[in-house]
């Protein structure tokens, strides 16, 4: 559920600002990594 919502936001930002998309993807990866560390 959370991944799908963040994915939609990333795709929405991709059209406007590619840099924000890259940051969004990095945040998703970081979030998954952080959850694994817990």
List keywords for this structure.
single chain, about 40 residues, 2 helices
| Shape verdict | rod-shaped
Kindly state the mean pLDDT as a whole number?
A: 70
| Proportion of residues in helical segments | over 70%
Helix and strand sequence: HH
Task: Describe, in plain words, how this protein is organized in 3D.
The chain is built from two helices and no strands. It has one domain (2-37). By secondary structure, it is mainly alpha-helical. The longest helix has 20 residues, at 18-37. The protein is 92% helix and 0% strand. It has helices spanning 2-16, 18-37. It is rod-shaped and about 35 Å long. The model has no long low-confidence stretch (mean pLDDT 70).
How would the blueprint of this fold be written?
Layout lengths: L1 H15 L1 H20 L1
Outline of the structure:
The chain is mainly α and 38 residues long. The protein is built from two helices and no strands.
């Amino acid at each position: 559920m959370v991944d799908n919502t963040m994915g939609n936001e990333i795709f929405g930002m991709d059209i406007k600002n590619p840099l924000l998309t890259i940051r969004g993807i990095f945040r998703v990866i970081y979030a998954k990594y952080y959850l694994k560390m817990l």
